[in-house]
Write a structure and sequence with these properties.
globular, mainly alpha, binds geranylgeranyl diphosphate, 13 helices
Amino acid sequence: MSFSDIYNDKIKNIDLYIENYLDGLDGVEPTLSESLKYSVLNGGKRLRSILCTEICTLFGKDISVALPYAAAIEFIHAYSLVHDDLPSMDNADTRRGMPSCHKKFGEGNAVLTGDALLNLAYEIMCDQCINGDVNNVKAMKVIANCAGVYGMVNGQAIDLKLPHCDNVTESQLVRLIEQKTMALIRASIISGAILSNCDENKMKLLEEYAYNLGLAFQIRDDFEDEEEDLEDANDCPNFLNILGKDKAKEKLDFHANRAYEIISSFDKNSFLCEFHKKLFN
Ligand code: GRG
């Protein structure tokens, strides 16, 4: 089987889990129900959910242990994109090549869609905690910590201010990215590791993997924005306009290589190694 066949199967598996879950919700107002599905199941690379399931299975657990968490992480990611696209935030008309949630369903519905996704994320994880072991609770705690005021939400709050600041430094930008982008990537990796009960040495390496992958992923995203000539790519501080193209590429390679070194040290034939090459080569 080719890499893309295997990758598509993994996406299908996660999407099927999410679709069944959303179809099983009872009594949801029809527009909200449609908009929930639209916002989560409208494509996307599934980077975060795949990190969670693959790390968990890499260390010996069945994928069924990680799938509810993978779905929860995709819900949180989708909520963040729906809210980020709102006129009061990034004001984006499209997402994943289609009208953004508020363009299709209106602003009020988009706010509620994000709210509903965030709540559903915790409901899925709580269901695992009720009959599960303490690792289920610990994994949920890491995700809550990374998604909220110690992570993504705080990063977004800094991001709202940063375009109005002069002379943003590289270290200020790294601090922003640690929260806005890296936190949820870290949550995906570390929750998968907790669910697989992996030891402290591996956990340390996975923290370093998350840091390097998160930074590399953001710089890659900055290059993509520039290629797509996004309107605000030049206004908002990013690695390209702060470091210049050459230095940004050097930094991208440095962090991507370190992330690869770590993930391949566990199993150089793992899916995550191939996925890494597709993302960064
Ligand atoms: C609204 C609380 C709140 C947070 C928003 C995610 C986010 C924070 C903002 C999105 C802005 C952005 C482009 C961030 C850069 C990295 C990033 C999250 C890219 C999108 O993630 P992908 O490429 O998206 O994994 P897909 O569509 O593949 O799921």
